[in-house]
Amino acid sequence: MTSQRYDIIIIGSGAGGGTLAHALADTGAEILLLERGDFVPREPENWDPASVWKDLRYRADETWFDGAGKPFTPYTHYCVGGNTKFWGSVLYRLRREDFGEITHVDGVSPAWPIDYETLVPYYERAERLYHVHGEAGEDPTDPPRGAFPHAPVPHADTVARYVEQIRAQGLHPSHLPLGLRGIGEPAGCVLCDTCNSFPCQLDAKSDADVCCVRPLDAL
Questions:
Q1: Which residues contact 189 (CB under 8 A, 6 or more apart)?
Q2: What is the CA radius of gyration of the chain?
Q3: Where are the alpha helices (H) located in the chain, listed in sequence order?
Q4: pLDDT means per 10 residues in the chain (219 residues)?
Q5: CB-based burial of residue 194 (10 Å sphere; 0-12 exposed, 13-18 middle, 19+ buried)?
Q6: Cα 175 from chain centroid?
Q7: Cβ contact 138:175 at 8 Å
Q8: 38 — phi, psi (to 5°)?
């Protein structure tokens, strides 16, 4: 058993833990990042729908129980980067009204102790870290914000046609804010159709492993 002492111990290397470790790395603190899983291997099964959806190759092999005691298999993954290895890389900001008290069908969600403006500089920092693409002002529900770090991901031809037809009806379709790395560059994102729920074979998806954990080795 190690006798080393740490200033900070972070449990989990996903969106929260991985990002926090990266943010604190240059503070000079002794940091221990704990992760129960391993790195996701780069293998043909990464982009195989049968392996991912049918065989649940990367899903946690365990049973949880809901409030009524009914068992279910959780949609979660134990690996470096956590569930971000399998997300669709859509990185919205919360809206201003999300920080206030909201009444839902099942009850009232209390107001946050902070407002949207408090988080703006942290949103900007996170969007740079995760290489977020988008178009400021395109989504009318967006809160006030500056420019995205990267231009929006271009629509596929079919989607582009739909967008124009929808706009012709007076509606406001918008690009998703996507965290992707190196679009159009060698070894970068190739705009494939295996992003959401698949681990990226090219490491071009902005997940906590690629953007936050691996860069720690260089420090």
A1: 180, 181, 182, 183, 202, 204, 205
A2: 20
A3: 17-24, 49, 116-129, 157-168, 208
A4: 87 98 95 96 96 95 94 94 97 96 95 97 98 96 94 94 97 96 89 93 96 90
A5: middle
A6: 16
A7: yes
A8: -110, 180
